[in-house]
Design goal:
The chain is α+β, with helices and mostly antiparallel strands. Helices cover 25% and strands 30% of the residues. The structure holds zinc ion (ZN).
Length: 563
């Protein structure tokens, strides 16, 4: 409990939230969600995962080696996460079997003896960076029947399904729940493996296994084929997943901002023709997003789109696709716009690929800050629409999604306990960014900021504060109150106004202290109201007196006339 208090106070949430956090969360949540004593002394360099799935028994068995670096010496306790009912069978470190203690559930404490600090010297400290042998390795053997996903991708776990021809089809979806639902790891977003990961899947010869990055090795023996896939870039644990089934493949090369990008597509054999047609949207997506966000962040690992036994997920360089080869979100326009903008493109291709920039390139340390993934990616849908159909179309789409906002709780969740905030991180978060863009009032500057975020925080883990500060600094507008308002409260600001003679008085209410967002008047001019929480006076035209105050629709606010 002590640790929860500390974490929460650091991030300065209200007393009310602290109370509910204490009531709601356990020591287990803190172990999982924070950088505690079993985690903070070592840094993951690489995961090498091998898995043998048993489709009939719905069981998996495997081995993970974790390369790590540390400055620690001697005896240390290492926290490894693996969720019940999965079991760690044996751990080896330096040729010696390690003592394992389960504490209390889902967490395994390994006592490592004789740790030597690695020779690693940070580049910043004058070193040359990491070289090959300057890390240590533990080897973990594990097995069990992993939790099965009932409603993937919304819940998590392994998926043991049949395709339409009754043949085995397997994969994993584990965002939120975490990768420790199936393999032992440091299940903490703040520590990505700096040198990537490999995943080897051993399956019967009749099936194909696809995973993240590039195919590094494929070998067959006694009816079993071992497929080894590898990413060279840092990757989130939950993004490392296998796809196993009757896949067929085709490839193309996209010439992008960083040169040749290898694109590879994997779908079930009977969907090949439909997929070839639908996936023509991939180069369109890449073109639009490289324009807005900068180069695709993982040229070394390539881009893949893989048919999945669920709707979709942003698995890095192996994006999961399950939208039925149709446009929209399961054939629906989420914006409900009259022109049907959301039906002009495939939601899963656009949204899940958008995460390659926001979630996979820029990752939040704590999932409480998950808006950085979802709000920007939600806004990528608007930017895609705008790129191909014009600015008003993009705005129609963005504004149309406001009806999906619930304002049930703040977008930022409680810190340190592996807990997301409100689902409003999608549509409200997207509308917050749309509003901020209009406060900045310079589309080229806004685009430069989006691209700048992706280069400044390239392959990094971040906090909300870092994103806020960067955007404030680059835009030269103080956006802090806007972020506070939309991310940390459920209040939608109300612009109150009243008339006295030819004068209009206006102010912000239903807002955080000091809220001072400027808003633009509707119309072709460049007339702004610099409202604060105090009444301000301005002389107004006959039109406004007659029709009332109209604010540019791109600002997500409420306007209210009072007496
Ligand atoms: Zn998403």
């Amino acid at each position: 409990m002590k640790k929860i208090f500390k974490a929460i106070l650091i991030f300065n949430l209200s007393l009310l939230i602290i109370n509910s956090v204490n009531a709601q969360f356990t020591n287990q949540d803190t172990l999982r969600g924070s950088n505690g004593p079993g985690r903070d002394w070592w840094d993951v360099v690489r995961y090498n995962i091998t898995v043998n799935p048993d489709y009939i028994e719905k069981e998996i068995r495997g081995e993970v080696t974790i390369d790590f670096k540390t400055k620690a010496t001697g005896k240390k306790v290492m926290q490894i996460d693996l969720q019940e009912p999965m079991v760690i069978d044996k751990v080896m470190f330096d040729g010696i079997e390690v003592e394992i203690k389960k504490d209390p559930r889902n967490v395994w404490q390994l006592t490592l003896l004789d740790i030597e600090p690695t020779m690693y010297i940070d580049k910043a400290e004058g070193g040359k960076g990491l070289t090959k042998k300057q890390y240590q390795t533990i080897q973990i053997l594990f097995h069990g029947k992993p939790i099965e996903a009932k409603r993937p991708p919304w819940d998590g776990g392994w998926i043991f399904k049949k395709d339409a021809k009754e043949r085995p089809w397997m994969s994993v979806a584990c965002q939120g729940l975490g990768a420790s639902v199936w393999y032992p790891c440091k299940d903490y977003q703040g520590d990505e493996p700096d040198q990537g990961a490999s995943l080897t899947v051993n399956i019967p010869d009749s099936l194909t296994a696809v995973a993240n990055g590039r195919l590094k090795d494929k070998r067959s023996k006694n009816g079993v084929t071992s497929w080894t896939w590898e990413v060279k870039n840092p990757i989130n644990n939950y993004n490392i997943v296998p796809y196993i089934g009757k896949y067929v493949n085709w490839t193309e090369t996209y010439i992008g901002e960083k040169g040749k990008l290898d694109c590879s597509y994997w779908v079930l054999d009977y969907n090949l023709e439909k997929a070839k047609e639908q996936f023509k949207q991939v180069p369109m997506m890449l073109k639009a997003f490289e324009h807005w966000f900068g180069p695709y962040p993982f040229y070394e690992d390539g881009y893949k789109l893989i048919e999945a036994p669920h709707l979709g997920m942003e698995h890095q360089s192996a994006v999961a696709y399950g939208n039925g080869f149709k446009n929209g979100y399961r054939s629906k326009d989420l914006s409900g716009s009259a022109a049907g903008w959301g039906l002009k493109w495939d939601f899963i291709i656009v949204h899940e690929s958008g995460h390659e920039w926001f979630a996979n390139n820029i990752t939040t340390i704590d999932i409480a800050d998950m808006w950085v993934h979802e709000s920007f990616t939600n806004y990528s849908e608007t930017l895609f629409t705008e790129y191909y159909y014009g600015k008003e179309a993009g705005s129609d789409y963005c504004i149309g999604t406001r009806k999906l906002i619930t304002n049930d709780r703040p977008i930022i969740g409680p810190y340190g306990v592996n807990k997301e905030g409100s689902g409003d991180m999608y549509y409200k978060g997207g509308n917050m960014l749309h509003t901020i863009r209009h406060v900045i009032n310079d589309d080229e500057k806004f685009r430069t900021i989006l691209r700048g975020l992706n280069s400044k925080f390239y392959h990094s883990v971040v906090t909300t504060k870092q994103i806020e500060s960067y955007m404030t600094k680059q835009s030269r507008k103080d956006l802090s109150k806007i972020f506070d308002q939309y991310l940390r409260t459920t209040m939608i600001p109300v612009l109150e106004y009243k008339f006295t003679g030819d004068n209009m008085y206006y102010r912000w209410t239903n807002c955080v202290e000091g809220f001072n967002m400027p808003v633009k008047l509707n119309g072709s001019g460049d007339d702004w109201l610099k409202a604060t929480t105090e009444w301000k006076k301005v002389a107004v035209t006959a039109d406004i007196l007659k029709d009332g105050l109209k604010i540019d629709r791109n600002f997500y606010i409420t306007v209210k006339r009072v007496q």
